[in-house]
Every structure is written in C-alpha cells, then in structure tokens.
Amino acid sequence: MFKIRGTRALAVVVAAVSVTALTACGAKTGDSGTSTTAGAVVDTSGPTVKVGLLNSLSGTMAISEVTVRDSLKLAIDEINASGGVLGKQIEPVSEDGASDWPTFAEKAQKLISQDKVAAVFGCWTSASRKAVKPVFEKNKALLFYPVQYEGLEESPYIFYTGATTNQQIVPALDYLKAQGKTSLYLVGSDYVFPRTANKIIKAYATANGMKVLGEDYAPLGSTEFSTIVNKVKASGASAVFNTLNGDSNVAFFKEYKSAGLTAAAMPVVSVSIAEEEVKSIGTQYLADQLTAWNYYQTTAGAANDKFVKAYKAKYGADKPTSDPMEAAYTSVYLWKAMVEKAGSFDVEKVKAAADAGGITYAAPEGLVTVDGPSQHVYKTARIGKIGPDGLIKEVWSSGQPIKPDPYLKDYSWATGLA
Amino acid sequence: MTLVLSQLFTGISIGAVLLLIALGLSLTFGQMNVINMAHGEFIMAGAYTVYVLQQVITSAGASLIVALPIAFAVAGAMGVLLEFLLIRRLYGRPLDTLLVTWGVALILQQAARDIFGAPNVQTRAPDLLTGSIHLPGGLVIASSRVFILVLALTAVAALTLVLKTTSLGRRIRAVVQNRDLAAVSGLATGRVDRLTFFIGSGLAGIAGVALTLIGPIGPAMGTNIIVNAFLVVVVGGIGQLKGTVIVAFALGILQSMVEYTTTVSVASVIVFIVIVAFLQWRPQGLFTLRTRSLA
C-alpha cells in the first residue's frame, strides 16, 4: 500500500504541470470567430464614446501590463475632466487578456463587435499583438500599441506608439560604438523579440566592425544563469546586449554580480528593464548598468513633471513611471488629436486624418509626431544609467525625434533582414 | 582546464540548489509518499520571510542568519497545518492529494500576490555574499554559491543525523518502512507523520532563504521550482536520501557541462532524455528501499 511507483507519480505531476504551462502559452492564435467585413461600427449614439483597454490583468504579464492600464486610465480621466473628445466623455471598457494570446484575440473581438468601441489601447508582448492583428484588420478597427518592439511590421489598423528598432536598438549600438566597445555578447529570452533584435544587432555589428562573440537564449522564466554568465565572462566581450524578459533578469543580474563582472568593465545594455523592473531586481545588482528607451521618469520637461505628479497622485508616491506607461498615456492623446482633426469617430476618417500627417502631441518624452505612412511615431532615443536610487538618468540622447523606420529601409546593412 | 573546473563548480552549485529544493520533498514525497504540489509555495514562504525580516532588521547579513530558523518554522508550520487539515484525510489517495495540494498552491500564490503585490520584491544580500572568491589558477567562484553549497550539505548532514541517531528518526524510518507494523508496535503514526511533514516543509523554507541570493522573489517562484524538485526525488529513488544527493549533483553537473557546449534549451532536452532513459532502465530510481513488507 505504501509504495507508489515513482515513475507513475512523476508522470501525473508532469502532466499536471504541463497543463498549466500549455494554458499559459496558448496553442492557437488569431481565431476571431465570425465577423463582418464591412468595418467596425462605432457606437456614438449616447453622450459617451467607448474605448477598449486590452491588457493582461492576471497571469505572468500582469506585473507590467497593469501599469499600462493605469496610465491609460489616467489619460482618459484627464481628457474627460477637460471636456472629453468632440463633446463626448470617454467611457473605458477594460478587458483582461490574462497573459494568454487566444484570450487577447477573443476579447478584442468582443470589444469591437459587442461594445462597439472607437479604438482599443493595449497589448504588451509581440505574441499578443500578432494574435489580435488579424482581428483588427478583418473588422477594420483601431488598435494603439504602446510598447517597444522588434519592428518589421506595419498594419493599416495598428498605431505603434512605442519605439521600433531604429529608435531604440540601433541608437544603443551607435552609443556603444561611440564608447569604443568593439565586441558584444548577446543574451536574450527565447522568443520572437530577442531573436529578431539579435538578427538586427548582428547585421549592424558586421557592417560596423564590431564582433559578436556569443549569443545565448534562455527559455522565458528561466532562472539558472550560472553557465551563461560563465560563457559571457570567458568571452571577454567589451559589452553585453541584454534582451531578457521578466524574472530571468533578476537571476541574470544576481549571477552577473556574483561572477565579479561590473558595469565599469563590461556594461550590460538592457532594452526590457524600466523603472518598475529596477525596483524588483534591486539597485544593489543594477547600479551603473545601461538601458535603452525613449523616456525615463527623470526626463526633463514640464509635460513630464505634470505626468509624473498626476500619476503619483492617483496611484501612490512610490509608483515609478516608465517608457511603456508613457507611450500608452501618449497614445490616448494622439487618438484624441486624430479624432478632432477628422471631426468624427469613424475609423476610416480617423485613419485618413492621421495618415495625412500633422498629428502631434507634447508628450512627457517631448514632442511626438505620427508618421502617416508607417503609423509609427517619431521618438527621441535615450540611453540611461541606473542610479543607486533606482531611477534611470539619461547619459545620451539622439537630441531630436528619430523618424520611425520599422523595416530599416534607410540602413544599407539591414537589407535582407525583412 | 580552468574552464572545465569552473564549469564543474557551476554544476556542483546547480546541484546544491537542486538538492536544497528537493531535500524537503525527499522526506514528504520520498518517505511519506505525499505528492505535495504546494512544496514550491513553502519555498516561496521562506523567501518572503527574508523580505519581511529585512523590513525590521536593517543588516542584510543578520537578517539572513535570523531568517534561516524563522523560515524553517514558518514553512514547517504551514506544512503541519496542511497535513493536519487536508493531507491526513487523504492518505493512500495520491491523485486526490495531488489535486488538493495543487489547489492549496494556487491559494498560497494568490495570497502572496494580495499581501506583497504581484511584482517581484527585492531583498538585500550581505556584501560578503554578492562577490566572488578567487582561487589559485584563475578560478573564480561566486560566494553566494559556496554559501548555498555549504547550507545544502549541512542540511543533508543534519537530516541524516536526525534520521539515523535520534529516536524521532527511528520512528520516522519505522513508519516509512512498515506503517502497520509500526502502529501495532505502539507508535503514534499520525504524530510521526506530522513531525515528518514539519521537517520536510521546514527544509523548503530554508531553501527559500537560499534562493533569495540567486533568483527572483515573487508569487510565481514556487511553480518554476517544483518540477525539478520532483524530478530529483523520483530519479534518486523514493525514500532514499542518498539517492537525492547523488542525483542532484549528477544532474547539476550534466546540465552545466552540456549547456556550456550547446544552449540552455538543448541541455534541458538532453537532461530529460537521460532521465527518461534512466527511468526505463531503473523505474524505481537510483536506490530502492528493501523491506519485507508485502505492500
């Protein structure tokens, strides 16, 4: 009676755990069910107009996406307090994507056909964006996507208010080159963004006489980095380019410091660590390491002072503001500007108004302009250094907003990447 | 040569982490046959104990030392509570135990999220444990890893001592080897079970303290750990401490050596293939307990 066969018990355990893993990953994407092809109908009959907020409020991505939802709500509240859009108050409908990509597609469809929203704001991971893209295209509805991503994409129904590669990764490489770094080691999580980003980095390195001494991918959620850090150390690279995401960053930086590697000798440039992540990794491990973004809480300017103050007043003094939050906040104001220029909530008219150019907003990161043809946004690239107080200080900036170039058409070394 | 040595140490240190997280489980799962899916959350409780203590004790070193016994007590108490309220009613029903403890694991994760917030929390490590030790021959090893190795070996030694030399240990072994006979001989098997569960869960708390030095501390940390812990115990052989020790180090070294020449994902696949092949050959694990029981 008291001898269960070990293997059988293990099989049960493994089966149970893989069920959770599977539901988290999601096997299918983009099945949006039946829908009309005539275009989304925006309900403007009442005194309010609805917009959708589509973020993961549960699951592994909730940590990051809840902050985006919060700053979207802040922007909506501010706009409502100052009279709304075209005389209508904005009514946000919040849906939980649950860190599960098919759920994102399902909820997007619900927001479009049931709530008849004028636009949807949200998504974080590239996987969730890829899952909802066909839904928005089929229904001819609008999505505003607020996170930096790997580029090589343009959808007529998506506005990208985060950075594309030539506004974040390429300037970061330019900065490293200017600092005299001649060799790189690439460390990333194993999914679409890091792999695409590293393809671009390798093309850049070849063209600019930099050496890529190694490239390693860890599964998302992996927390054992001793071997990777050993490899990084043995390579003797002059800098590390880090595209790890989530919990892995904590383990990576703890191991990095333990191995005796320092920001002075071998700096790490990260593209997924913002103020919120710094808080949970610990400045003990991150001090003086570099980040590449378009906005920091410390970015100078009256618009940012106002944003930071309003955010802290609404959500708590200890809550930092970060790049994706700022891009989300800005996206609501950009949509407002488009609607007002179009004089209508109708999706095609709003799009036409934006694509004609001239949509600008004095955002916390500085003046942003929507690039009509690509539906991306001009953004200033900023390299930051993590301080002992957990805030990130700008050490270099491109000085002026960079024109978005999602397919890197203006870079000769990038031919063949798309 | 230095590289091989340094990878060997990396493997040993991965093994030490595996050993520490599996040690408690080798008692509750290995000795008592309770599939406790909440074991990972007991580890999480240990890690959060460090976080809570650091709100009170400012010295990182002192808080870490104080955290060890307190985390043992906290996780142990949670284990006893779980055993007393649920598991004790489900002995001999492994599948029900699995589902129930999994439910408890989800509840504990959500509780951690509500109490400490969804984002990871940070703890401070004493300076002594964030640096590295330089050995002759250019070998550099992380001091946190040395600490974990020493902690793991100490825990194994202490546990062995308790099992082999104390009357409590004798009682635990008696109940494991033949529950009915132990009961007939006048042992209060229920009380022995609870004590075993206390020690096993307490060891999870200790593992949690150690993990704050190398990994993230958050509500989801337990789920990432639990599979590896079960793996080590099953391959090591149910009810065998020495199996757990040997397998933890063997898997750690295998993982680090293969990973160095390939990638993390390939290394994990190879480790799993080796495990599956091994279990085909020895389904009962590395060591088995030989008894005259007919069960």
UniProtKB/TrEMBL annotation, chain A:
It comes from the Bacteria. Pfam families: Peripla_BP_5 (PF13433). The keyword Signal applies. Keywords: Signal. The keyword Heme does not apply. InterPro entries: ABC_urea-bd_UrtA, Peripla_BP_I. CDD domains: PBP1_FmdD-like. Residues 1-26 form the signal peptide. This is Urea ABC transporter substrate-binding protein. The gene is urtA.
From TrEMBL, chain B:
It is a multi-pass membrane protein. The keyword Cytoplasm does not apply. It is found in: Cell membrane. Belongs to the binding-protein-dependent transport system permease family. LivHM subfamily. Keywords: Amino-acid transport, Cell membrane, Membrane, Transmembrane, Transmembrane helix, Transport. This is Urea ABC transporter permease subunit UrtB. Its main location: membrane. The chain crosses the membrane at residues 6-30, 42-58, 64-86, 138-163, 195-217, 229-253, 260-281. InterPro entries: ABC_transp_permease, ABC_UrtB_bac, BCAA_transport_permease. It comes from the Bacteria. It comes from Paractinoplanes globisporus.
